[in-house]
UniProtKB/TrEMBL annotation:
HflC and HflK could encode or regulate a protease. Gene3D superfamilies: Band 7 domain. Keywords: Coiled coil, Hydrolase, Membrane, Protease, Transmembrane, Transmembrane helix. The chain crosses the membrane at residues 38-57. This is Protein HflK. HflC and HflK may interact to form a multimeric complex. Residues 54-235 form the Band domain. The keyword Aminoacyl-tRNA synthetase does not apply. It is found in: Membrane. Belongs to the band 7/mec-2 family. HflK subfamily. One of its GO terms (molecular function) is peptidase activity. PANTHER family: MODULATOR OF FTSH PROTEASE HFLK, STOMATIN-LIKE PROTEIN 2, MITOCHONDRIAL.
Amino acid sequence: MRDWGNGPSSEELEKKIVDFANKVKKKMQGGRFKPSRGLLLVALIIILGFGVLGSFYEVNTEETAVILRFGKFAGFSGSGLHFKLPFGIDRIYTVPTGRVLKEEFGFRTVKPGVRTSYTKKGLEEESLTLTGDLNVSDVEWIVQYQIADPFKFVFRISRPVETIRDISEAMVRKAVGNSNVSKVLTTERAELAGEIEADLQKILNEYDIGVRIVTVKFQDVTPPDPVKAAFNEVNEAEQQKESLIFQAREQYNREVPKARGEAKKLIQEAKGYATERINRARGEADRFLSILTEYRKAPEVTRRRMYLETLEEVLPRLDEVYILDEQGGAILPLLQLRGEKGGAGK
């Protein structure tokens, strides 16, 4: 059973007082020591004073106190100043339930702060992990957790923190051992961390020690020093591959919409041209039908009118115009035959 709080210090003091009182009692029973009334009164006052001082305990803001009375669970108490029965009747164990606790693997924080410093000295056996393709990777990770049930955390198991560390290390080695080294070093860190977190929480639930896993996060995953240069080349190649894929997607996103726009433009132009041609053809057909109707009413007049309209359309385009008689010999002298100023148009 792990002691988490400030209770045991006062309880040790109470225990010493009780031991002292028992020694005095034994000496009195043996006849070797006969205290006076005044001395007994002073001793009683001292004992009562220590009892009063031991009747209060303080719980910090982020803590929860577990209360045992005569060795049995009596309840919890929150932050603040509280009363308890002295002389070991009530025993208090404070647990940091309001904080997110952290365990580090493969490294240790030496100096936390703005410029946090770490060390890996002597932790090689903890960080070196065998992958599924029989390669070795240097894995550093952290496990963050909260104490959900302080009673279970303190009394369900003798060394809860060590248990969390052992199970976490087992889960990481299992997950890394089922993956190849390239995935562990590059693409599957987040997926592996999620898998480890789920497995770790499942096993801790089976142990029923009142712990909730907040997150499992890989701090750093690197190859061992003898092969680090080769793996760095692999990482550079992966990064170059991702860069080329990104560039190709960028060009795709730029060219494909442009081509689609041009295609839509051509389709709209083709539809417009088709509509124009159809309307023109319908107009020509309607015109022909109207002429046909007039022709059926007066064929000779319609034929002559069409002949004259055609001449009016064709003659202005000619440079020279000749009008012959029916025998093809004489030229009719009544018309201006050559195109001059004010004459036949070109």
